[in-house]
Amino acid sequence: MAAHPLDPNRLRRTLLKGAASAALAAPAWPLLAQQKRPGRKTDTVRVGYGRGGLPLIAKQRGEFEKTLAAQGIKVQWVGPFPNHAPSLQAVTGGSADFGFWGSSTPALAAIIAGSPLVFTQFATYEPRSTAIIVKPDAGIHRIEDLVGKSVAVNRSGLGEFLLVAALEKHGIARDKVRFVYLNPPDAAPAFTQGKVDAWSMWSPQVDIAREATQARDIFLEGRDLSFLIDFSSLLTTRQFAQDNPALVRAVIDAYAQDAAWINGNTLAAQTLAQKEGGYADTVRDKLVDYRQQWDFHEVDDAAFLDKFQFAADWLSERKILTQAIKVRDHLVRV
User: Fold this and answer.
1) What phi and psi values does residue 333 have, to the nearest 5 degrees?
2) What is d(CA 286, CA 212) in angstroms, rounded to the nearest whole number?
3) Cβ burial, residue 20 (10 Å; 0-12/13-18/19+)
4) pLDDT less than 70: residues of the chain
5) Sorted alphabetically, which PROSITE patterns does this protein's record hold (predicted)?
6) How far apart are CA 1 and CA 308, in angstroms?
7) How far, in Å, are 79, 84, 205, 250, 278 from residue 52 at the CA level?
8) Would you tell me the crossing angle of helices 53-61 and 266-277 to the nearest 10 degrees?
9) End-to-end Cα distance, the chain
10) Are 13 and 7 in contact (CB under 8 A)?
């Protein structure tokens, strides 16, 4: 499958903005340290990252930091985080300025709980590789076989939502299956040791588990689910966005450049991610075979926001989110 770039019009817009900001950068860092740029109150940005995905590859590649350095912005990486919820806690707790392009579902849950988070940008990628997996000797061959069984999921996250969607598609009541709420570092050994019967998980952890246990998919998001309920999202606090709109824009634009590079350099990108994950070449090659392509969505993209609102409603109606939320109230356009 040939690689495809990001939407050219959207990418051109974001890159031109980034180039314009870079052109204004003064040549001497000491001068920048003495005088903040218009549109930002700080020249240092603390960025979260995990063990896979766009931020990790941006960190390993190094161009993200160079792009922002050209605008007088210093990058501090915070992490790695096992999943999005602790990344968001770091933002609200003041130890990071941005999360790590994680799942929009725990972000919505945090906002409902009172966190002053706002969405600054969204991304989608295809194909989707999140899956519900079982080991060969589990006696589970289809979703219906999960009745009476236990499944590890992350609470209010992509793992839980995928299991709910799978059960609903196959007409199985949720109370017929035991949801075991575990974060990925705890879920992996629980699944490997047979303490749970199945695991609902995203890449690369689900691919690592397949390799280690010869597990198989009984539900694959990109194959078995016809709609998106969860999106990659970049969040900060409302105050940080209001104080630093130019910096927020610069971070978004730098990420857009890395996403475009990933789309055209799948093997190189996954090799960078492999350095952090420490997994086998066979796992890396599986990830390369996905040929995942990133596409960015601005927070004023009305068509995208309609899809996001549908997702939020779907989640609240099924009690994955504790209450309904109007997503347009929690966006910042820069």
Assistant:
1) -95, 125
2) 13
3) exposed
4) 1-36
5) TAT
6) 28
7) 12, 12, 9, 22, 11
8) 90
9) 35
10) no
Taking the C-alpha atoms of residue 224 and residue 227, their distance in angstroms, rounded to an integer, is 9
pLDDT digits (tens, 9 = 90+) for 186-202: 999 999 999 999 999 99
Q: Is residue 173 helix, strand or coil?
A: coil
pLDDT at position 28 is 34
Q: CA quadruple 61, 121, 252, 124: dihedral positive or negative?
A: positive
What does the pLDDT read at residue 29? 33
CA geometry: angle 315, 298, 293, nearest 5 deg: 80
Question: Which two tokens mark 328?
Answer: 């347009």
Query: For the chain, which domains are there?
Result: 8-127+229-330 (3.40.190.10), 131-224 (3.40.190.10)
* Cis omega (within 30 of 0) for bond into 204: yes
DSSP state of 174: G
Kindly give, in sequence order, each residue whose CB lies less than 8 Å from that of residue 247, ignoring residues fewer than 6 positions away: 39, 40, 42, 45, 73
